[in-house]
Design goal:
With about 325 residues, the chain is mainly α. Helices cover about 65% and strands about 10% of the residues. The chain has two domains: about 240 residues, no CATH class; about 70 residues, no CATH class. The chain has a three-stranded antiparallel sheet with strand order 1-5-4, with no helix packed on it. The radius of gyration is 26 Å and the shape is elongated. The two termini are about 20 Å apart. Keywords: Membrane, Transmembrane, Transmembrane helix. This is ABC transporter permease.
């Protein structure tokens, strides 16, 4: 059974291995370029902000930057491909062609047949995605340490162990949709839609609540305002301070001394059409405003990684359990 399963997965596995090897060569070639660009920063011992900014500017204009974007996309695309091209056809093709009647009436039981299929598929999916994620994380660590943005939602999902959890979820989601829809093409479409929806929904509504965020209320530094918007009709003003550097800011309010959100009324003589930026800042500074921040600092990277990975691995486990129940109790 194991040999038969390997023969079924052999072509896909070899293609994936070849693609990963080619991408690994590309990372090795461009890693030397990043090392050379980072040399000044690595040698710096104090007041390195200017060198870091120069490094990031040179990196974005170098030949390594397209590879950086490709690596970011690959970390998200690979789990989806595993789900739609490996997971969705696994049972759907058997049901669609009718070969399940032969495969499930041999000496090998349905449970063992599914266990071997899922075990092999999950192992290959986790290994391939883990290798890619490890390579991308190591390759980009100098850029991440300079930019301090690996906590941002887009980059977070392409680093660490989260892509592996995405791959396991996508693969088992594909198996489940194929088992229920019994057709390969509809199963591929459904798998892709659900997987993309889950990956997008996680940073929008779930990730910030997986572990407690840090809450701080600090004096508003009007010299570092991120934005000011004024509504001439209502006389309200929206003031937003700079987010925390190196953190994922999930809440950023400007509040008054009593804790209520500051909305004005605006003083049009200082912040209106006849005012000036300096006078507007002085007026805001005289109000004693405070910045109410809710954020996940860089130290939350791995706790959030483990928490999010646990969510998707748990969902994958539930899908696997449902597949075993269905294949044992449903009359096909």
């Amino acid at each position: 059974m194991i040999w038969f399963t390997w023969r079924q997965f052999r072509s896909q596995t070899l293609i994936a291995a070849a693609a990963l090897a080619a991408f690994g060569v590309l990372l090795l070639v461009t890693a030397r370029l990043i090392t050379d660009l980072y040399a000044d920063v690595a040698a710096c011992r104090s007041d390195c902000a200017g060198l870091v900014t120069a490094f990031l500017d040179r990196f974005r204009s170098s030949a390594a930057f397209p590879t950086y974007l490709a690596a970011l996309g690959a970390a998200y695309v690979l789990p989806a491909l595993l789900g739609i091209f490996w997971g969705a056809p696994l049972i759907a093709r058997e049901l669609e062609t009718g070969t399940h009647r032969l495969a499930w009436n041999q000496s090998v039981t349905r449970t063992r047949w599914l266990a071997v299929k899922l075990g092999a598929g999950c192992a290959i999916a986790a290994t391939s995605t883990g290798l890619l994620s490890w390579a991308v994380t190591v390759w980009s660590h100098r850029v991440d340490s300079a930019s301090h943005d690996r906590m941002l939602p887009l980059l977070f999902g392409s680093r660490g162990i989260v892509p592996v959890a995405y791959a396991l979820f996508a693969f088992l989601l594909g198996v489940t949709t194929g088992m229920l829809l019994r057709r390969v093409v509809p199963a591929i479409a459904a798998t892709l839609a659900i997987h993309v929806g889950a990956v997008v929904a996680m940073p929008l509504w779930v990730r910030a609540h997986l572990i407690p965020a840090r809450h701080e209320t600090i004096a508003l530094d009007v010299q570092n305002l991120m934005g000011i918007s004024i509504s001439p009709d209502s006389g309200t003003i929206n003031v937003v301070g700079e987010p925390v550097e190196g953190a994922w800011t999930v809440g950023n309010r400007t509040v008054t001394s009593d804790g209520s959100t500051f909305t004005g009324p605006v003083d049009f003589t200082t912040c209106g059409p006849n005012g000036s930026h300096v006078r507007c800042q002085e007026w805001l500074g005289s109000l004693g405003l405070r910045q109410d921040l809710l954020y996940h600092p860089g130290s939350h990277f791995w706790p959030l990684q483990w928490a999010e990975a646990g969510v998707f691995v748990g969902l994958a486990a539930l899908l696997a359990a449902f597949c075993f129940w269905w294949i044992r109790h449903r009359v096909v």
